[in-house]
């Protein structure tokens, strides 16, 4: 037989070799699949607080401070206890030998108490001491923290409401009108100003301070029957056998975390542009609560179109015991109760001003102590877009005349004009007219000089370039010069550092 035409015959052991090879290849394939399986997203919970379409990378998020707060609140005792864990990437060029946390409830205007009763950094207990007239606590580090390090700070704290608020009294922290307001209730890492810490003692008519954008995970335990208006999104809620509720909230990036609670809140809500907008109000002020909701929706739509999209899944407008004032926090605007029932003609302007702060203060931060005009003036000027977009250009022009130009003319006539570029404490009775109104007129002057399209492009670029950072007046000035294609320094020198209306 011709062996060249004979069928090939494999030795019997060859089948075993082939089977082994197949098993090895399969094992390697499975191992490779396991090796390339995507790691769990450590920010999956934070992303649930975002409006669809908003996105930040894991690297951007990892560079931010990250708070994990657990707090138990007992309104009957006017007290709360909690712990805070802060993961802090160190990005300063100079080594840090200490850390400062602001304790704002100790302010006289807050009428409360915030005590730190334990602290550690990277697992080592550290000494701490009161600073800045008890509005800050200094943590002395066992060894310096340098660029590239990560500090893991643990704090234990106790908070109390010390002063009994009266009906009709401004209450930013505490219990009034059946509302427990917990604004800035926890230790907040102080911001850096240049090579040092910003430790100004807050002045009565300005904001308490400014803070870096951070990520927040907050677990709140509270008695049953309370309706909570909180910064961010509630992800889960459980009830223990005694009826106490534990809710988990997340938000980020955001400048602070804030919450108010009441058994008497009524709530209306709707959705627009991927954001759920809620209005919290007293039952007897239902009509104003509904109006506040509609105004907030319109402002959200107009500002998103003009400046760039709002980042969060939630937004809240809350009737609060702030008399006829307002106060901004990330994702939540507090509107004084008297504006819902006594000064209702001011409700719309107050709501849309505070909503504008979701861009100017939260998305783009600034030093609200040394340069309050940069966020307040922009929030005021943003109202021009709102009124023009909702009611027409003629109404917006009337706003400019009645709200900014006429009050400023009165100040000038009395010889009390000042430049807008001063720190909070340099203003007295004319703070809002000068910082808000005259600040808005600076931006209106830029619009007159450059045209509406250029200023809108400037503001959108400002958000894009400085989102989640702290911008300075110099930053804004340089950007405006670039967008204009020419030097506008004379305008800034006149309005910010001089008094263009002095003597007119």
Describe the overall structure:
- This protein has 504 residues and is an alpha+beta fold.
- It folds into three domains: 60-259, Immunoglobulin-like (Sandwich), CATH 2.60.40.1730; 265-363, Orthogonal Bundle (Neutral Protease, domain 2); 366-497, Neutral Protease, domain 2 (Orthogonal Bundle).
- The longest helix is centred in the N-terminal third of the chain and has 24 residues, at 13-36.
- The chain has helices at 13-36, 44-47, 58-62, 286-307, 338-341, 347-356, 373-391, 393-413, 431-450, 452-466, 473-484, 489-497; strands spanning 66-74, 79-89, 96-102, 112-121, 124-125, 128-131, 136-145, 150-161, 173-176, 179-183, 188-189, 192-193, 196-197, 214-222, 227-230, 233-239, 245-254, 258-262, 266-272, 275-281, 314-320, 326-329, 332-336, 365-366, 470-471.
- Strand 20 (275-281), helix 4 (286-307) and strand 21 (314-320) form a beta-alpha-beta unit.
- Strands 5-4-8-2-1-14-17-16 form an eight-stranded mixed beta sheet. Strands 19-20-21-23-22 form a five-stranded mixed beta sheet. Strands 6-7-3-11 form a four-stranded antiparallel beta sheet, with no helix packed on it.
Largest sheet: 8 strands, mixed
Mean pLDDT: 92
End-to-end Cα distance: 122 Å
| Oligomer state of the chains in this structure | single chain
What's the CATH H-level superfamily name of the largest domain? tricorn interacting facor f3 domain
Main β-sheet, spatial strand arrangement: 5-4-8-2-1-14-17-16
Structural class: alpha+beta
Uncertain runs with pLDDT below 50, 5 residues or more?
1-20
Using the coordinates above, name the CATH class of the largest domain: Mainly Beta
How would you sum up the global shape? globular
CATH architecture of the largest domain: Sandwich
Count the beta strands. Answer: 25
CATH topology of the largest domain: Immunoglobulin-like
Please estimate the helix content: 25-40%
Helix segment tally: 12
């Amino acid at each position: 037989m011709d062996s060249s035409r004979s069928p090939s015959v494999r030795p019997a052991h060859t089948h075993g070799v082939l089977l082994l090879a197949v098993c090895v290849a399969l094992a390697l394939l499975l191992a490779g699949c396991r090796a390339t399986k995507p790691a769990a997203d450590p920010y999956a919970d934070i992303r649930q607080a975002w409006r669809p379409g908003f996105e930040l990378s894991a690297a951007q998020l990892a560079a931010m401070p990250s708070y994990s707060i657990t707090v138990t609140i007992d309104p009957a005792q006017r007290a709360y206890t909690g712990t805070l864990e802060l993961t802090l990437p160190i990005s300063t060029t100079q080594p840090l030998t200490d850390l400062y946390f602001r304790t704002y409830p100790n302010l006289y205007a807050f009428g409360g108490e915030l005590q730190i009763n334990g602290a550690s950094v990277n697992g080592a207990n550290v000494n701490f001491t009161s600073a800045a007239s008890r509005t800050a606590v200094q943590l002395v580090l066992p060894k310096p923290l340098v660029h590239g390090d990560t500090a893991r700070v643990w704090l234990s704290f106790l908070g109390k409401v010390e002063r009994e608020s009266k009906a009709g009294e401004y209450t930013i922290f505490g219990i009034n009108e059946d509302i427990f307001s917990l604004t800035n209730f926890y230790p907040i890492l102080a911001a850096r100003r240049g090579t040092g810490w910003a430790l100004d003692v807050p002045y009565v008519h300005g904001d308490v301070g400014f803070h870096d954008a951070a990520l927040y995970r907050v677990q709140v335990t509270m008695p049953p029957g309370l309706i909570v208006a909180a910064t961010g999104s509630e992800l889960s809620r459980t009830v223990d056998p005694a009826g106490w509720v534990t809710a988990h909230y997340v938000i980020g990036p955001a400048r602070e975390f804030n919450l108010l609670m009441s058994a008497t809140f009524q709530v209306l809500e709707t959705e627009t542009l991927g954001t759920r907008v809620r209005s919290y109000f007293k039952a007897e002020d239902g009509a104003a609560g509904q109006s506040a909701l509609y105004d907030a929706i319109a402002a959200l739509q107009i500002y998103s179109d003009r400046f760039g999209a709002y980042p969060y899944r939630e937004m809240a407008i809350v009737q609060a015991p702030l008399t006829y004032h307002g106060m901004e926090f990330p994702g939540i605007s507090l509107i004084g109760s008297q504006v819902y029932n006594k000064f209702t003609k001011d409700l719309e302007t107050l709501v849309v001003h505070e909503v504008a702060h979701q861009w100017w203060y939260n998305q783009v931060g600034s030093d609200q102590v040394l340069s309050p005009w940069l966020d307040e003036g922009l929030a005021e000027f943003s109202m021009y877009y709102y009124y023009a977009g909702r009611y027409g250009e003629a109404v917006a022009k009337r706003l400019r005349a009645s709200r900014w130009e006429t009050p400023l003319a009165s100040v000038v006539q009395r010889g009390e004009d000042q430049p807008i570029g001063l720190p909070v404490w340099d203003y007295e009775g004319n703070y809002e007219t000068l910082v808000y109104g005259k600040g808005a007129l600076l931006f209106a002057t830029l619009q007159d000089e450059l045209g509406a399209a250029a200023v809108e492009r400037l503001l959108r670029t400002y958000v894009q370039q400085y989102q989640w950072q702290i911008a300075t007046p110099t930053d804004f000035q340089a950007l405006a010069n670039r967008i204009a294609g020419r030097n506008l320094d004379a305008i800034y020198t006149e309005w910010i550092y001089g008094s263009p209306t002095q003597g007119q």
